[in-house]
Amino acid sequence: MSKPNFKIGIGYDLHRLEENRNLVIGGVKIPYEKGLLGHSDADVLVHAIIDSLLGAIALPDIGTLFPDTDEKYKGANSIELLKKVYKMVKEKGFSIVNLDSNIIAQAPKMMPYIPKMKEVLSSVLELEIENISIKAKTKEHLDSVGEKRAIEAQAVVMVYKS
Ligand code: ZN
């Protein structure tokens, strides 16, 4: 049975906030007293986007593709991982229709950095700015995110094969 050439993918990620780490979200370095903890640069938004892309084309998730036991990915720039995954999407014959996402953080304020994040993602994903949405939410001081101990991100992406 032939199906329409559209596919949708969902991604989610969370990283802990710790001292002596850089805070990198959406490929943008954000000045803050803490940063996200992880094997790579722990870019929570980019990781959620990577998983949404992999989900859309039904490939194994980010942890399977880039295992945190692999020294190669220690301190990895997540934008470089995103480039690899986008290449896999293209190799399957797909391109991206649009991307919607949420960054859930009690602090710092994400708003000032969102235009730059969109620019970075637009160039990596060959996607027009008007097809990229990044929303910033807080957790009303509840849970680990609300207590500034972690930051979460969610992403949905639609891809199509022409
Ligand atoms: Zn992650």
Offer a concise description of the structure:
The protein is of the alpha+beta class and 162 residues long. The chain has helices spanning 44-56, 62-65, 78-91, 114-125, 143-146, and strands at 6-18, 24-25, 28-29, 35-36, 95-104, 132-137, 150-160.
Features:
28% strand; single chain; binds zinc ion; alpha+beta; 162 residues; 60s Ribosomal Protein L30, Chain: A
Describe the structure.
With 162 residues, the chain is an alpha+beta fold. The protein has one domain (5-161): 60s Ribosomal Protein L30, Chain: A, CATH 3.30.1330.50. It is 29% helix and 28% strand. It contains five helices and seven strands. The strands form two sheets. Strands 4-1-7-5-6 form a five-stranded mixed beta sheet. Strand 2 and strand 3 form a beta hairpin. Helix 1 (44-56) packs parallel to helix 3 (78-91). It starts with 5 loop residues before the first strand and ends with a strand. The mean pLDDT is 95. It binds zinc ion. Residues 13, 15, 38, 42, 44, 47 line the site of zinc ion. Zinc ion (ZN) is lined by residues 13, 15, 38, 42, 44, 47.
Shape designation: globular
At the first level of CATH, what is the class?
Answer: Alpha Beta
Order of helices and strands: EEEEHHHEHEHE
Could you tell me how far the N terminus lies from the C terminus, measured between alpha carbons in angstroms? Answer: 18 Å
> Tally of extended strands?
7
What is the oligomer described by this structure?
Answer: single chain
Helical/strand content category: alpha+beta
CATH topology: 60s Ribosomal Protein L30, Chain: A
Helix amount = 25-40%
Query: How much of the sequence is in beta strands?
Result: 25-35%
Overall number of structural domains: 1
